[in-house]
Amino acid sequence: MSEQLKAAFALLPGLLGQHVLLSLSALVLGLALSLPLAVLAARHARVRWPALALASLIQTIPGLALLALFYPLLLAIGALIGHRLPALGFLPSLLALTLYSMLPVLRNGVAGLLGVDPAVREAADGLGMTPSQKLWRIELPLAAPVIMAGVRTAAVWTIGAATLSTPVGQPSLGDYIFSGLQTENWVFVLFGCAASAVLALATDQLLGLIEAGLARRDRRRIIAGALGILIGAALAIAPLAVSATGPRYVIGAKNFSEQFILAELMSRRLTAEGAAVQTREGLGSAVIFRALAAGDIDAYVDYSGTLWTNVLGRKDIPDRQAMLAALKTELKARYGVTLVGPLGFENAYALAMKTDRARALGIATIADLAPASNRLTLGADLEFLSRPEWTAIRGAYGLNFKAQRAYNPTFMYRALESGESDVISAFSSDGRIAADHLTVLADPKGAVPSYDAVLLISPRRSGDAKLRAALQPLVGRIPVEAMRGANLSVDRDQDKATPAQAAGALGKLLHLE
Amino acid sequence: MAAPLIALDNIGKSFDGGRAFALRGINLGFEAGSFTALVGQSGSGKTTTLKTINRLVEPDEGQVRIDGHSALAEPGPRLRRRIGYVFQSIGLFPHLTVAENIAAGPRLAGWSRERIATRIDELLDLVALPRALSSRAPAELSGGQQQRVGLARALAAEPKIMLMDEPFGALDPITRIDLGDTYRALHGKLGLTTVMVTHDVQEAVLLADRIVVMKSGRVIADGAPRALMAGHPDPDVSALMATPRIQAERVAALTRSAPGE
After folding, report:
1. Which residue, A173, A258, B168, B247, could crosslink B176 as a Cys pair with Cβ 3.0–4.6 Å?
2. In B, which residues are within 8 Å of A137 by CB distance?
3. What is d(CA B61, CA B11) in angstroms, rounded to the nearest whole number?
């Protein structure tokens, strides 16, 4: 078995358990809401149309967006009721998936209940059944197979959509897919897809057994299906109960390789100290700082320029040391966040081109790029085009590209390689700059702020000696070459390392372990 | 004369917010033990009249009294548990066995398990169905057998009143006459009071002691079959009663001319 497959299997018990717990909770909650609503909608035409329309509307929101929307929503509700709600992780995922699971049950429930033969209803009335006796003894049993078919659809959708909960900080089988996609670890991507597909198919089969049992009034099938689901769920969730002991540190990571490696590096150091650690990977740049300030995560690495413009909303560009000093006091004062210190390398936004192409066009700086830009295509990562840095660069140099396309970082480099893009928004610590022989365009006007990697700790953990002791040694310790090397080992096509392996190698290289 | 078991006093019912009248000023009394047929064409109001008795249709005006008490004073479901109801589409519960279908009424009435089991066997005998059918699903039975189960289900909780809406309308002629005979015998044996809706006047003549003819939401004739067949001033009624009268005369002629033995 390959190293990557071994690494994937090692993560399976935890991720599968989380995935099952989340899907099952969402499904149960979804049923508890949609079944009564289906009964109400079947009885009253006035409820039916709005209920079905709303459920359909929710279904049209892309799953990822629905999950992401719960983050600001829960923060806002928390502020409104004056009690902080966990806006990341289980709660937003649960709520989004619950909404997502409702449509099939609602739709089939209404169809099943309305499909009951009017003569059968009349007979029930004629015998003197009350509306609720009619519902429980006649209508629901007759609609049960149709409702169960809806439950099966809902289960398959929910299990599939639960993979999208990774970016809002809820571990799931999607962790394989998201981190695999970022690091081009296709073994991980396939493993995540296969695992969630197997889970969905197995659940569907067991629910199908219950459905057949209901349709044929065969109690043995119903019991076998229900037992299968209960035992399967219990086995999947059991590892969580075992590992959920002691205080737990949550380390956050954004959605690219360097962040995964640094999160692993921090986790390893905490684990070595005997602490329980959980990582939440793939968080969006704007979400992650608020998550830290809110205490949903305990520590992560951010970049000074990002914090300066995005969090503090500053437009000026001071020099490196002044920015760090100002950040330290401002973040503490405004958010209670501790900036422990810079790690020693910078990961700045930079515009990069293939060296031969830059040479052919006579471009060495962003100022040279400006007059040629209307004939060139810009490839950017998913955030760059909406970031203030881009506005600053574009304004300072008067850039006007023929086209702008957004990619995930891995595919952005591919686009440059293939010529789909002429210029990309590169990161200065990216190993691919050296590996792909790219030219980083100089910034003579100083339009881009500095991007020192800095270690941040949440307000809640600011006095936590164990966390400090484990992470303090990282400060000032990681030179850009070491980081590029680690990044490249994860990002390259051949002989790839997982972020955990890269973190181990980086730790050894820097004599941290 | 004693008050009738069922009394409809000046019943009115309209649909479409008062634009279409289903019933206007219906006054009918049904004596205990009587067997009455309500006949008339589709839309004459006979089914609506029947359903006001067990309040599957709520009248807009007028009073329904059963055994001297207002039927509108108690909850509809409780009233209906004391009144048997059989209708053309039968409406057997497809997910329940024959026995469970028959047991539905007694269960609502809170009977004990033993009493229900005894009652099911008793009823299968009464409606002339083999007891072996009790564990079958309704879909496995013939149409005639299904309506026998429907009849047994309606009789299960020992009602004194039976309301029947075209009960044998969907059956083939032989099964229909057979089941009609079975029911007529039960009506006498159990001391029931029966009101039956039918569009088939021959069936009414065969089974009922009294025929009520309805047209456009009103009663246009009310009497014993023999009296109505003898002739009626209303041309619609006499046309309606002509068929059984001609048939009866023909049968009588055939009987007279048959060679003696």
Report:
1. B168
2. 104
3. 6
